[in-house]
Write a structure and sequence with these properties.
This protein is of the alpha/beta class. Helices cover 45% and strands 13% of the residues. The chain has 2 domains: 4-77 and 123-276 and 469-484, Glycogen Phosphorylase B (Rossmann fold, 3-Layer(aba) Sandwich); 288-463, Rossmann fold (3-Layer(aba) Sandwich), CATH 3.40.50. It contains 18 helices and 15 strands. This is CDP-glycerol:poly(Glycerophosphate) glycerophosphotransferase.
């Protein structure tokens, strides 16, 4: 029997971390062959490319060229032809002339009447559509899997070409995002302000592009980019909501996530409640928790008499904050230094630090000691084994909820997300003093921690069905989409 082919298109390291269990599931099933395309420059996903090569699967770059393992690549290096160099020089020259012309035109306009240059966005979307069309014709995949469909990225162009080619598209949902999250960042970027006349015209014509936060009205994209997407028929019905585009199936992990997105306005018929291969890993590790915890502590030479705290440091998002933002730490180096100082004071606990996919483990290496170690594996492997999980507005918190593990959620960047508000098993704090006080109580008051854990266990079934059968539901959905198309 011929194997079916799954094309995994990944736009960032965090997307790939969620896509990886599906890749491994396809390999394990024996009926599917996964192929990965990274729609970002190769240098940003080198560790992820290495993982794919270790798994023995084909990897392609953003332009559809195959990425060979480094030893093979070095044996086949050839110099670029003079014709190719001339073409690249000519293309750069034309681009620069177009930018200069646009800047000159804008110089005659008042600042409130200027429009963001749509040419780079148009060029990027047309390139992605062209590459995807050729790539689909070459690979002939049965299903395409995206890590997410985000306005501003070119995921909508990939979905559009898949639709034209009759290839079903599935989109993963790795977090809760319905407007507040992007608005917190965009409210400080002038290009999204309604101070611009073009943006006011956009939201008057298309109200779905408007969102108001703290009394400040915004548009999801600058008017020129939003109108370009409308013209190319790539604009989603609800631009402020994650995965609101035109994928055939949007995968949901549990009832809580589905209810969240239905309330946000997504069509219930597109939301497929099948869970995730990660859930089967959580199910297995919860069942074998005593044995796996002992093995983990032994591997990292941690004392068995101490309970385990797992913490996931946030990535560096200082660049997204406004210049006058009031945050506890001015730089990422200060943030992680302060975080580790707090963790090192927990002398009665073993501490494992999980590395964010976008951060090198070497950044944290200097902080290790006999009771604090850096964990380089997948976060979901250790969350079910700990007694307390500490993170910062992270999508990984959902794994702790599913596993019934109490959570301390420190909003270190002051983004004020409400994803986990109302959950008794997740303690959310927004200041350093509150963080240290809450951590001290959770680590020293076992009765209090047990109450928080009990509340978490009651909430867990709404977030996932941990029955060990999620892999079957996912594969059944793959097959169903193939039959429909």
């Amino acid at each position: 029997m011929k194997k079916r082919k799954l094309l995994v298109v990944s736009h960032m390291a965090t997307f790939f971390a969620d896509q990886l269990p599906y890749i491994q599931l396809c390999i394990k099933s024996g009926g599917w062959t996964p192929v990965v395309q990274f729609a970002v420059p190769e240098q940003y996903v080198l560790p992820q490319i290495a993982i794919c090569h270790d798994l023995g699967i084909d990897v392609y770059d953003t332009y559809g060229a195959r990425i060979l393992p480094i030893p093979v690549r070095q044996e086949n290096v050839s110099s670029q032809s003079s014709a190719a160099k001339c073409f690249r020089t000519l293309a750069c020259s034309v681009q620069n002339k177009m930018r200069q012309l646009y800047a000159r035109i804008c110089s005659f306009l008042p600042s409130s009447g200027r429009v963001a240059n749509p040419l780079p966005k148009w060029r990027a979307l047309r390139l992605r559509k062209c590459v995807t069309k050729c790539f689909l014709a070459m690979l002939e995949p049965d299903v395409v899997l995206l890590g997410g469909d985000i306005v501003g990225h070119d995921t909508s162009a990939v979905i559009d070409e898949c639709k034209k080619a009759g290839v079903p598209v599935m989109v993963l949902t790795h977090c809760l995002c319905k407007g507040q999250e992007p608005a917190r960042v965009l409210r400080h970027i002038p290009a999204h302000s309604l101070d611009y006349f073009a943006n006011r015209c956009l939201v008057w014509l298309f109200p779905e592009w408007k969102y108001t936060i703290d009394g400040v009205p915004l548009t999801r994209l600058p008017a020129s980019e939003a109108l370009l997407m409308k013209w190319l028929r790539l604009a989603p019905p609800k631009p402020w909501v994650l995965n609101s585009g035109f994928a055939d199936a949007v995968l949901m992990e549990g009832e809580a996530m589905r209810d969240y997105y239905v309330h946000a306005g997504l069509e219930p018929s597109a939301l497929q409640l099948v869970g995730s291969p990660t859930h089967d890993i959580l199910h297995d590790r919860i069942k074998r928790r005593p044995q796996l915890l002992q093995e983990l502590l032994h591997k990292y030479a941690l004392p068995e008499e101490k309970p385990l705290l797992v913490t996931a440091l946030p990535p560096d998002t200082h660049y997204m904050l406004p210049p006058n933002a009031c945050v506890a730490h001015e730089t990422y180096a200060e943030l992680i230094s302060a975080w580790f100082q707090v963790m090192k004071r927990l002398t009665g606990w073993n501490v494992l630090v999980c590395v964010h996919p976008s951060v090198s483990p070497d950044v944290y290496k200097q902080y290790e000691n006999e009771s604090l170690k850096i964990f380089k594996g997948n976060t979901f492997e250790v969350v079910p084994l700990c007694s307390l999980y500490v993170a910062s507005i992270s999508s990984t918190i959902r794994w702790a909820i599913m596993s019934g593990i109490p959570v301390l959620n420190y909003d270190v960047y002051g983004l004020d997300y409400d994803d986990y508000i109302g959950l008794d098993g997740v303690i959310t704090v927004q200041s350093r003093n509150a963080f240290e006080d809450s951590l001290a109580r959770l680590t020293n008051d076992s009765a209090y921690r047990c109450n928080i854990a009990e509340a978490q266990r009651k909430e867990a079934p709404r977030w996932a069905t941990l029955d060990g059968l999620a892999h079957k539901r996912v594969l059944q959905l793959f097959d169903a989409l193939c039959k429909e198309n």
